[in-house]
Write a structure and sequence with these properties.
It is a single chain. By secondary structure, the protein is an alpha/beta fold. The protein folds into 2 domains: 5-152 and 258-304, Periplasmic binding protein-like II (D-Maltodextrin-Binding Protein, domain 2, 3-Layer(aba) Sandwich); 154-256, Periplasmic binding protein-like II (D-Maltodextrin-Binding Protein, domain 2), CATH 3.40.190. 31% of the residues lie in helices and 24% in strands. The chain is built from 11 helices and 14 strands. The protein has helices at residues 45-48, 52-55, 60-65, 92-104, 115-123, 138-141, 185-200, 214-222, 233-242, 271-283, 285-293; strands at 5-6, 32-34, 67-72, 75-76, 80-82, 89-90, 107-112, 129-135, 144-158, 177-181, 207-211, 228-232, 248-249, 255-265. Strands 2, 3, 7, 8, 9, 10, 11, 12, 13 and 14 form a 10-stranded mixed sheet that branches. Strands 4-5-6 form a 3-stranded antiparallel sheet, with helices on one face. A hairpin with a 6-residue loop joins β5 and β6. α4 packs antiparallel against α11 (285-293). It starts with a strand and ends in a 17-residue tail after the last helix.
Length: 310
């Protein structure tokens, strides 16, 4: 599944390009103000309630302010995307953010942002947290901290029936036009590595095409400009359904399943509270409710033991 969205490291005051993957109106929509309880249909306030032990871990400034700002790239269903009003952000990450807020007794402001600007925004203090299906990588951990909440891997979207017989395997992609979202782990790591494998074996390189949003990459596939799109497998399957079957997830196992997490500024004072709140959500029925609501497979679920990275 999970958005192996990625991006380069910030040293000192230089820009962080770390980030993987995300309607194209991201910068036009206003922030969405969530309630302290998860959205209707995903969880109930009664099922969660404030966890006083987790709330006690909040820095005083957050207890006083009462609001947690969470940045997401709303071009990546089912994790974050706009509702039919093209203003309200919905999705799994939105519900999870609201659930964390409920546990901590905070309201949540969901802020739309392009994917590759979220991690730099955390470092500059623009956002409190980023939730956009960030894959946990060693490179990213040098610049930000993570609190895991799911796991999954990369898949490839193809035309119905997979006429090119593509799969998440270098041998099946050599010489093909394959798209991914800019800043994603697919664009930064996986596709370049696959292409190198092709050329080292004497085969044509992969014609890699990178797009600013996931929607743009998907449109390139449905318009015939590329032959496949690599991204989180769960999201691709869901997006294919939303597109009325204009593309589908190729059959086969996910490539290198990894933890996916909320991101925070390095050494943020919020980390202990977010870890405790996330563990509380994972232990509650709400977690499986959210997974079922957004049609995530059972294989993506993690346990509270996975929340604190080693």
């Amino acid at each position: 599944m999970i958005s192996h969205r990625t991006a380069g490291i910030l040293a000192g005051g230089m820009l962080l390009a770390l980030a993987a993957t995300g309607c194209t109106t991201v910068t036009q929509a206003e922030p969405t103000q969530g309630s302290a309880a998860p959205a209707a249909g995903s969880a109930s306030a009664a099922a969660l309630g404030v966890n006083e032990e987790a709330r006690a871990l909040l820095p005083a400034a957050f207890r006083d302010k009462g609001v947690l700002s969470i940045a997401s790239d709303p071009t990546y269903p089912p994790f974050e995307f706009y509702d039919t009003d093209n203003k309200t952000m919905i999705g799994w990450d939105v519900d999870m953010g609201d659930a964390i807020g409920a546990v901590l007794g905070l309201s949540v402001e969901h802020v739309p942002a392009t994917f590759d600007t979220i991690l730099p925004g955390l470092q500059s203090g623009k956002y409190d947290m980023g939730m956009s299906t960030f894959t946990v990588t060693d490179e990213r951990r040098k610049a930000v901290d993570f609190v895991p909440n799911l796991q999954g891997g990369t898949g490839i979207a193809v035309a119905p029936g997979n006429p090119e017989k593509l799969g998440v395997d270098p041998e099946r992609l050599c010489g093909k036009k394959i798209a991914a979202q800019k800043g994603s782990i697919q664009s930064l790591d996986i596709l370049p590595a696959f292409s190198k494998t092709c050329t080292e074996a004497g085969n044509p390189a992969i014609d890699m095409q990178f797009f600013p949003t996931q929607n743009d990459a998907n449109l390139a596939l449905t318009s015939g400009r590329v032959q496949g799109v690599m991204a989180d497998s769960v999201s691709l399957a869901y997006q294919g359904e939303l597109a009325g079957g204009k593309f589908e997830l190729a059959e086969g196992p996910d490539f290198e399943p990894e933890l996916t997490a909320a991101a925070l500024a390095k050494n943020s004072e919020l980390i202990p509270a977010i870890q405790a709140a996330t563990a509380a959500v994972l232990e509650s029925p709400v977690y499986l409710e959210m997974n079922s609501k957004w049609k995530l497979p059972s294989t993506v679920a993690i346990t509270p033991a996975d929340v604190v990275l080693k």
